[in-house]
Specification:
Elements: H1 2-21, H2 24-31, E1 33-39, E2 47-48, E3 54-55, H3 57-72, E4 79-85, H4 90-95, E5 101-102, E6 116-132, E7 147-151, H5 155-166, E8 172-176, H6 179-187, E9 193-197, H7 198-207, E10 214-216, E11 222-231, H8 235-251, H9 254-262, H10 270-278
Parallel strand pairs: 1-4, 1-5, 7-8, 7-9
Antiparallel strand pairs: 2-3, 6-9, 6-10, 6-11
Helix pairs in contact: 3-8
Amino acid sequence: MKTGLRVLIGLIALLAAAAASAGALERIRDKGAITLGYVEGAAPFSFSDQKKQPQGYSVDLCREIANGIRAQLALPKLETRWVALTLQDRLEAVRSGRVDIDCSTTTWTLTRQRDVDFSLITFIDGATVLAKGDADLFRLADFGGKRIAVIRSTTTFDVLNRELKTRSIGAKVVPVADRAEGLQLLRKGEVDGFASDRLVLIGLVLRDPGDDKFRLLDDDFSIEQYALALPRGDHDFRLAVNSVVARLYRTGDIMAIYERWLGRLGRPSVLLYATYWLQSVAE
């Protein structure tokens, strides 16, 4: 009896291990669906429209990837399931298999790569600080004795604290949960600045202009390399995703997505153009 029980437990463990080792492409083929995560309130990269549908630059990239994977798997159709995530749970959602891809504004770092893999770089941005338009604040050095809100558990939080220490700037860092809270504190005068990625801050103000006037600092204090977070160690899935992204860069189709969401902010920077060009890997 004990031997039989041990055998049964062993079989269950083997089945569980086999299920866990199944790659994303196999799961997608079996389910006939791909599950994509996005962070609301990260316009123009990912947000919900008035109909609660995901939109944005990163979201459209993932739509192209879903279409490309459908073609690669020779499926007649592929359902796309969207899951709203937060800045705090997006990577865990990928790591645990809750979503197949995180389609937001995740910065690729080596520390994060311990838990998830990343696609080719999808965008280059820089972290800066949003301040009131009438404030005498133009550079990070001007924030000595001031308060800067920043979202906790983000790369910007860590880099801002490091930069303030390195430059001996005596600013107080105020952790917040999300971008909406940071903007609200700035409007109410409870902080003097709100730090985040430059284009995300622009999108935040454009979507919720109110009566206040704001300005961005003239300088950035970090470079943020956005990429799509993928399951760690799933080489076939990463290749399938990167094949679509590289094709978008190689054919120039990425510019239609850029123009749709970022065109009114001007043409891509030289650095972003170089990013597209250098990653236009041939088949």
